[in-house]
TrEMBL record:
<feature type="transmembrane region" description="Helical">
    <location>
        <begin position="286"/>
        <end position="307"/>
    </location>
</feature>
<feature type="domain" description="ABC transmembrane type-1">
    <location>
        <begin position="92"/>
        <end position="307"/>
    </location>
</feature>
<feature type="transmembrane region" description="Helical">
    <location>
        <begin position="31"/>
        <end position="50"/>
    </location>
</feature>
<protein>
    <submittedName>
        <fullName>Sugar ABC transporter permease</fullName>
    </submittedName>
</protein>
<dbReference type="GO" id="GO:0055085">
    <property type="term" value="P:transmembrane transport"/>
</dbReference>
<feature type="transmembrane region" description="Helical">
    <location>
        <begin position="227"/>
        <end position="246"/>
    </location>
</feature>
<feature type="transmembrane region" description="Helical">
    <location>
        <begin position="96"/>
        <end position="120"/>
    </location>
</feature>
<dbReference type="InterPro" id="IPR000515">
    <property type="entry name" value="MetI-like"/>
</dbReference>
<keyword id="KW-0813">Transport</keyword>
<comment type="similarity">
    <text>Belongs to the binding-protein-dependent transport system permease family.</text>
</comment>
<keyword id="KW-0812">Transmembrane</keyword>
<dbReference type="GO" id="GO:0005886">
    <property type="term" value="C:plasma membrane"/>
</dbReference>
<keyword id="KW-0472">Membrane</keyword>
<dbReference type="Pfam" id="PF00528">
    <property type="entry name" value="BPD_transp_1"/>
</dbReference>
<dbReference type="InterPro" id="IPR035906">
    <property type="entry name" value="MetI-like_sf"/>
</dbReference>
<feature type="transmembrane region" description="Helical">
    <location>
        <begin position="132"/>
        <end position="152"/>
    </location>
</feature>
<keyword id="KW-1133">Transmembrane helix</keyword>
Length: 320
């Protein structure tokens, strides 16, 4: 080996050592911040990454008594059975439709609410409205499900009483295939719209007030300020949250569906999460339902990747 090569390698090793020392000094200087991060890192390692090892049972004929190491490997058999199952495509369609409806109607809701709240100048009134719209987020679907059942009851619910007062027949919202998806989407928006508006309110608060002052001097109306200042300034946040939402496009929400649905609306309300519960937990078909869950995760990953590339082509930052 030539002397020059030896010096080059020695120099690279020295640079590596220096970088290691800098990294160690940075950790030692900010040890308290790293200590604060540690519980969060441990949470994701224990509850998010370690359980991912369990997806191998999607390729096995898993037996509780034999365990992962002792169960028979069957390859892609469960995925083939999944695509050949008669009810899978109905469940997949229901999941996709409800998710798309929530995305179309639910995603713009927090943006609109944040813009409206930002225009309120009376602070007491503004805080009261914020409290009212945030409150449903902190209630479980068990509580909200009971409220929905009572409010939408065909005999004693306030909604059907108003309908009968107008001269129409009562509507069985929670047992009607025509209305069940509407109830699911509307109740989800009601529960989460206030909580989702918090991030957008923070984004609006970060906009330079001088931009609005200059727009007022130029004679721009509130509508033009919204189109040319507010929305463009919020666009990066909107894109990031949209990409994150796409990653969960097939996560309809097990608790909400499970609380509100029944056998009369399985045709339109049975989704992947409830299907996995009924087949995987109640019928103990763990390998098959793991294959279904893995399929759902792969679809979400593909959608996020494609959307992230599209966002970068349009000049936005994206997630990575």
């Amino acid at each position: 080996m030539a002397a020059a090569d030896f010096v080059g390698i020695k120099g690279e090793d020295g640079l590596t050592v220096m970088q290691g020392k800098k990294r160690f000094r940075a950790i030692r200087s900010y040890w308290d911040l790293y200590l604060i991060m540690l519980p969060g890192i441990l949470y994701f390692l224990v509850y998010k990454y370690l359980p991912m090892w369990g997806v191998v049972i999607a390729f096995q004929n898993y037996s509780v008594f034999s365990g992962i190491w002792g169960s028979e490997w069957v390859g892609w058999l469960h995925f083939k059975n999944m695509f050949m199952a008669d009810d899978f495509y109905t469940i997949f369609r229901n999941t996709l439709l409800i998710s798309i409806y929530k995305l179309i109607w639910g995603f713009p809701g927090p943006i609109i609410l944040a813009i409206m709240l930002n225009e309120i100048r009376h602070m007491l009134y503004k805080r009261s409205i914020q409290t009212l719209v945030y409150l449903p987020h902190f209630l479980s679907w068990i509580i909200l499900g009971g409220i929905m059942v009572n409010v939408l009851s065909p005999s004693s619910g306030i909604v059907n009483k108003l309908i009968t007062m107008l001269g129409f027949e009562p509507i069985f919202f929670l047992t009607s295939a025509d209305w069940f998806r509407t109830v699911i989407v509307a109740s989800d928006i009601w529960k989460e719209v206030g909580w989702g508006a918090i991030i957008y309110l923070a984004a609006i608060a970060g906009i330079d007030p001088k931009l609005y002052e200059a727009a007022v001097v130029d004679g721009a109306s509130k509508w033009k300020q919204l189109i040319h200042i507010t929305l463009p300034s919020m666009m990066s946040v909107i894109v990031i949250l949209f990409l994150l939402r796409l990653g969960h496009v097939l996560d309809v929400g097990f608790e909400q569906i499970f609380v509100l649905y029944n056998s009369l609306v399985y045709e339109v309300g049975d989704v992947i999460e409830t299907y996995v519960y009924r087949v995987g937990i109640q019928q103990a078909k763990f390998s098959f339902t793991t294959a279904v869950g893995l399929f759902k995760a792969v679809i979400g990953l593909i959608l996020v990747t494609l959307a992230n590339k599209g966002a970068k082509k349009l000049g936005q930052e994206g997630i990575w």
